[in-house]
Design brief:
The complex is a heterodimer of chains A (354) and B (502). Chain A is 73% helix and 6% strand. With 354 residues, chain A is mainly alpha-helical. Chain A has a two-stranded antiparallel sheet. A two-stranded antiparallel sheet of chain A has the order 2-3. Chain A is globular and about 65 Å long. Chain B has 17 helices and 19 strands. A six-stranded mixed sheet of chain B has the order 5-6-7-3-8-9, sandwiched between helices. In chain B, strands 15-16-17-12-18-19 form a six-stranded mixed sheet, with helices on both faces. Chain B has a four-stranded antiparallel sheet with strand order 11-10-13-14. In chain B, helix 5 runs parallel beside helix 6 and helix 12 runs parallel beside helix 14. Classes of the chains: A mainly alpha (354), B alpha/beta (502).
């Protein structure tokens, strides 16, 4: 007797996000045509937003645990700047080694922020919003301190790495001159997709991930159930920091230059993507695949506007804002009708018994 | 000690700053028994439970557990769990966003990877075994409250608990759900689990329990087999009255006339905290809500005043229909309310006596029509004299006054608005006997001379019998009787509270 369980709130909200994305993309293909008909358009979205996918994961983890982390954009900016400066200044002949050190530097910065913020939030019990706001200022300040001028990466080995792309011939298209141009996926995008799957696994199958869900569901209960609440919360910020550092490295792979305002306000995009993907700010509900589609939705809106007559940056922002508002409204409507239905069903069951 | 004893607590003491919460309390639990722990709110039930579960450390006394050498040392909830003492609280302490199975096993499994398959298999087996109508993969918030409660119990059972504490498990369940819970409790009992059942629902105690321990004011009243303690005697024990020498005190109460106009009338009024009830009061009548602490008497008057979220009902004031959904509505309709907890709901300690007295009147007038200083001083003076408030001056901070005088200040605040209907919730608690009498007399005077209708609530039955001409008796959040005239005796009140006059 196999019985299908009703969708959990997490699954339901994610399904809505996926549906909307597919619908939106299909409409874009039908009405805008052009680039949207090529697979490369989709891969470009992935390539351009790989760092945002990582930030989305970073945010989703802490938001499921009932927290928030608004320092991720700042950490990306700092990481990009620090790595660019290191690469340009390195004397190491072996370019593989210097790139590895750069990666470690990026992850180290991310982890340092994660550990510091996690400690203050979890063990010192300071509001996560305030701690990570301070973290954001600190990261931005450090970035400017490192260099107020843009720093372009001149490291040859790294520039080579940036050019490396995964070629997927069968999703390519025939150019006007008859050559097959394969679809291209950047290393950063691959890293982001791998991390997406790892994060999903962590949240779904690893004890820590479940503890984070429990923590976000009801902190007091989690404590009573014997979960080490402080440690779980701490680790959620450490992972969040780690992913932000990695996002910085991936950003540099996509755009090999550091600037003071790199990835400015990208934490807000990451929060928006998480919410659109079905993560609730109240915690306990969310899924990184939903967040992935949240990123895709935001990116697709921007692409659509670029190709439409309304090509101005404020239209992009307004469309993103409208989308976010629409989703939150939709979520609350769906969840509250669900709640009502549940109560009705319970009443009915009681009546039948009585 | 008998062989089947699994838990023995002897001479448990617990002191909190300013109060002695438990004093030399004994408690014994046997294998396969459902043992009800009874007492009014504040009698020490929760404190005793918290000592046993390691939330509080005891100041004195000893605890022995079956299978544990010497005294059991319980310093934290984790210690208690390890010793086989499991607790299911009134508030469900599970995570609504996780599955049923996960809620049963999270936080107590080894290994870093979640063994989903094993969880589901074990959970399904246990749910079937205990007859709990839930599926392992179901998200917990898709279950009814009763089932959630049962899942919490299943978790405890799976931890091989010897002592299961159920702290007010039925307070948010309906009758059907309570029945389900009881059959689970009986099942566990037959498996040899000792269950401590804390509740304030008297009937439920008689339905499932084998034994009752009664506490009052932090002291042990006694331990009784259920068949030796009729319900009415249980009530008497909880309230600390001996049923045999209940002589009635002289009544000084004024009696209103039935033909007087009805000032306030409510039909099926209900709030987030109270069940629907009908209620009315005549002009110049003094009536009261009585019942054990926690029986819902305060919640009822809070519903009348709109202090909790009003969820339904029709209200008429002097025959005209009015809508009262918040205290301001009630005030405009002419209702005053002196809350039970004057520190929390009434007094503003950092304002002066005068400001505290003026407050309600100012709210009624609206803040854009301030009163002149002279006017305020005149009002304050008048009531300080009338109520004999002992204060150095009008400008003294209320916080520095004695409890009785603070109470009078709040009373003055409401009298100043000349309400048609005044609700006094425990106006005499924590104040000295002289002031108590003064307030009682004042209540009667207001009713007789100013034709004010007054609802009076007090924990002291004598006081209510003396002042009220009608008593509405509550039990388990329901009105179970209305007493007037000759019925106004302590014995009758207790019989009504106990139900059926056994």
């Amino acid at each position: 007797m196999k019985r299908r369980e009703p969708l959990t709130n997490t699954q339901l909200l994610m399904t809505i996000a996926i549906g909307i994305f597919i619908g939106m993309y299909a409409l874009a293909m039908a009405f805008l045509g052009g680039g949207f008909l090529k697979a490369q358009q989709f891969f470009d979205i992935l390539n351009d937003n790989s760092f945002l996918i990582l930030l989305g994961c970073a945010l989703t983890i802490v938001m499921i645990g009932g927290g928030i982390n608004i320092s991720v954009g700042g950490v990306v900016g700092l990481t990009v700047m620090a790595c660019a400066l290191y690469l340009n200044g390195t004397n190491i002949e072996n370019s593989t080694l210097s790139i590895s050190v750069t990666l470690l530097l990026a992850l180290g910065i991310g982890l340092a922020f994660g550990i510091g913020q996690g400690f203050l939030i979890s063990y010192m019990e300071i509001q996560p919003f305030i701690v990570t706001l301070a973290g954001m200022f600190l990261a931005r300040g450090l970035t400017t301190m490192l260099s107020i001028y843009p720093v372009k990466v001149t490291h040859e080995g790294f520039k080579e790495l940036v050019k490396q792309k995964l070629q997927i011939p069968f999703l390519g298209y025939i150019a006007k001159n008859g050559n097959l141009i394969p679809a291209k996926l950047e290393i950063g995008a691959i890293v982001a997709l791998v991390m997406l799957i790892l994060t999903w696994y962590l949240l779904k199958h690893v004890k820590l991930g479940r503890d984070i869900y429990a923590l976000g569901g009801n902190q007091q209960s989690a404590l009573m159930l014997g979960i080490n609440v402080k440690r779980s919360r701490f680790l959620s910020y450490v992972i969040s920091g780690f992913l932000s550092g990695l996002a910085g490295f991936v950003y540099l792979l996509h755009m090999p230059a550091g600037k003071a305002d790199t990835a400015n306000a990208s934490e807000m995009d990451a929060i928006a993507a998480s919410i659109i993907g079905g993560t609730l700010l109240t915690g306990g509900v969310g899924n990184v695949f939903g967040t992935f589609f949240g990123v895709l939705i935001l990116a697709t809106i921007k692409k659509i506007i670029v190709l439409s007559p309304l090509n101005d940056s404020w239209w992009q922002d307004m469309a993103s804002g409208a989308m976010l508002g629409f989703f939150i409204l939709l979520q609350s409507i769906v969840l509250s009708t669900r709640e009502k239905r549940k109560i009705k069903a319970a009443d009915k069951a009681a009546l039948q018994k009585g | 000690m008998q062989n089947d004893t699994i838990l023995t607590m002897r001479g448990i003491d617990k002191q909190f700053p300013g109060t002695r919460a438990l004093s030399k309390v004994d408690f014994t639990l046997r294998k396969g028994e459902i043992h009800a722990l009874m007492g009014e709110n504040g009698a020490g039930k929760s404190t005793l439970i918290k000592v046993l579960t390691g939330v509080y450390e005891k100041d004195g006394g000893s605890i022995w557990l079956e299978g544990v050498e010497g005294e059991a040392h319980i310093h934290s909830p984790q210690d208690a769990q390890k010793l086989g003492i499991a607790t299911v609280y009134q508030e469900i302490t599970l995570c609504p966003n996780l599955t049923v199975a996960e809620n049963m096993y999270i936080g107590r499994t080894e290994g870093q990877i979640v063994p989903w398959k094993e969880y589901e298999k074990k959970a399904t087996a246990l749910l079937n075994n205990l007859g709990i109508p839930a599926r392992a993969k179901q998200e917990l918030n898709h279950c009814s409250l009763a089932v959630q409660q049962m899942v919490a119990i299943a978790r405890a059972v799976d931890m091989n608990c010897k002592v299961l504490i159920l702290d007010e498990p039925t307070s948010s369940l309906d009758d059907k759900e309570v029945e389900m819970l009881f059959s689970l409790m009986r099942d566990l009992k037959s498996r040899g689990v000792g269950i401590i059942f804390v509740t304030h629902f008297l009937e439920q105690v008689y339905e499932v329990s084998d034994r009752i321990t009664v506490l009052r004011n932090g002291e042990l009243v006694g331990e009784y087999a259920i068949e030796d303690l009729p319900q009415v005697e249980l009530v008497a024990k909880m309230m600390g009255k001996d049923l045999h020498d209940l002589s009635d005190l002289e009544q000084i109460g004024s009696k209103h006339k039935a033909e007087d106009e009805i000032i306030y009338e409510a039909q099926k009024i209900s709030s987030s905290e109270s069940k629907p009830f009908d209620f009315s009061i005549h002009k110049g009548e003094v009536n009261g809500f009585t019942g054990l602490l926690g029986s819902g008497r305060s919640e009822s008057v809070r519903a009348i005043f709109g202090a909790d979220r009003v969820t339904g009902g029709k209200v008429k004031m002097k025959g005209k229909e009015v809508k009262i959904s918040k205290p301001h509505d009630a005030m405009k309709a002419g209702i005053g309310y002196l809350p039970e907890d004057r520190k929390k709901d009434g007094i503003i300690a950092d304002l002066s006596v005068r400001e505290n007295i003026i407050l309600a009147l100012q709210v009624m007038r609206g803040f854009f029509r301030p009163m002149s200083k002279a006017q305020m001083e005149a009002f304050a003076d008048e009531y300080i004299k009338a109520l004999n408030i002992k204060t150095a001056s009008q400008d003294t901070l209320v916080g520095s006054l004695s409890g009785g005088n603070q109470q009078k200040v709040i009373l003055a605040r409401w009298l100043l608005t000349h309400p048609d209907y005044l609700i006094l919730d425990e106006p005499t608690r924590g104040i000295d006997v002289g002031t108590k009498l003064e307030i009682q007399k004042l209540v009667l005077k207001l009713a007789a001379e100013e034709n004010m209708s007054i609802t009076f609530i007090s924990s002291e039955i004598e006081e209510m019998l003396r002042t009220c001409s009608r008593l509405i008796v509550m039990r388990d959040r329901n009105i179970v009787g209305e007493l007037t005239g000759d019925q106004l005796t302590q014995a009758q009140v207790m019989k009504t509270i106990a139900g059926g006059g056994q």
